[in-house]
Amino acid sequence: MSGSNPIRVLVVDDDPLACEAHIAYVRRVPGFVVAGSASNAAAALKFLAGGGVDLVLLDMNLPDRHGLEIIRTMKAARHPADVIAVTSARELETVRTAVSQGIVQYLLKPFSFATLRERLERYASYRQTVTAPTAASGQAEVDQLLAGLRGASPAAPAGLLPQTLESVVNLLRELTDLSAAELADRLGTSRVTARRYLEHLVDTGAATRDHRYQGTGRPVVAYRWRSPG
Amino acid sequence: MSGSNPIRVLVVDDDPLACEAHIAYVRRVPGFVVAGSASNAAAALKFLAGGGVDLVLLDMNLPDRHGLEIIRTMKAARHPADVIAVTSARELETVRTAVSQGIVQYLLKPFSFATLRERLERYASYRQTVTAPTAASGQAEVDQLLAGLRGASPAAPAGLLPQTLESVVNLLRELTDLSAAELADRLGTSRVTARRYLEHLVDTGAATRDHRYQGTGRPVVAYRWRSPG
DNA sequence: TGTCTTGTGTTCGTTTCGTTCATCGACCGG
DNA sequence: CCGGTCGATGAACGAAACGAACACAAGACA
Hints:
The structure is a homodimer.
Chain A: E1 7-12, H1 16-27, E2 32-38, H2 41-49, E3 55-59, H3 67-76, E4 82-87, H4 92-100, E5 105-108, H5 113-130, H6 139-149, H7 162-174, E6 178-179, H8 180-187, H9 191-203, E7 207-212, E8 220-225
Parallel strand pairs in A: 1-2, 1-3, 3-4, 4-5
Antiparallel strand pairs in A: 6-8, 7-8
Helix pairs in contact in A: 2-3, 5-6, 7-9, 8-9
Chain A binds a DNA duplex through residues 159-161, 164, 179-181, 189-193, 195-196, 213-221.
């Protein structure tokens, strides 16, 4: 553990804010150091050519070339660094191509620090096993290795279910201006529960509250996803 | 399901006996057809250039070139076929490189028909989801996709009985949407034990977790065998 | 100002979850 | 034949997540 070298990470993102955020995140995870950053494909490839990178946190949407192209170039050049794809693109086709090119993780933006840390730690564990000069004892060990690299997300809010929270986020993104009662209807839960999740999103700054006047009775509280980014 | 085209497989192995055996195996799995076979790297690449291949069952030890080289050449040429690495090489370094090049599975020789079938079925499920022109609803869906592709074989129990596990798998396949309590009832075990087996299946990517809101009280956790549609 | 109408916010009981720990049997060396 | 270790199990016990119910809030309208 303490004897192994830190994993050197290159952060690539064209949005300066996101780039800084990711750098700060990586710095907070023990065992990882930020080797550098780049805001476009050309700079990223140039930095990679200089060596000293073990892992790339790679945004797919870059101004000059698509992230998938960078991966292809890297692999063709036998560059040994692994790649975690970071993107807001939800097209499954992109996921498929990225997997086919050998990415070790696929992270959807925006993600929390907890999520990134968990993925980095998984990768560190995988890397430590796999770089040892030993042989696998059998199929089971190989399976375990790959499964550990690609496990599910134990994202942990408080008092609510992670999966339901994600459904709420998706609905909020899709339909702007959602009231607690409407969400309850679409979710199959009670209004109380729907409200709990929405308030959580407001608390964490992911959503905003608003009022909708409808001519009669008490106004409805409408929730909105905060800026598509 | 029935409307989708079969997945065309190229079998590559220099040992004629093993090659024939793998061909016979693939033929026995519904939804897959053998597009051709090759006994060396040159023949494999030539066949691939002709198109009509979705998946390559690729032995790593070939007389002319190493399997990893074939994968690199394929990916550099943007060949869309996916690769399942088949090898008797247990060096973890080879595993790591192969994963880095984007293989979808890593199978150690010799393997049983049941093992290959299970991996092929996982790949078919992954492929069906990923080739649909839809977008992922969130990180959880992406994670489940990757976990299902790379998960360990469910037949690798740790702290549980293979026999019981098989019963659980059968029940889960038969009845979609099973809760831990329901399984416990049908199995004659306690809820705790039933839950242990179901969680194991989720860990290995063979099943997925879902929540069922039932009008009152805490929602129940519903488990599903993967590939619902 | 008072009333009506609609929706909000919170309390509290209900149902299920997830975990801990003792138990029971199987296997094993002596 | 006996004591010991190990592996799988389930009873029991907080804690978690939900929704029915209810009191109150906020606007419209007279």
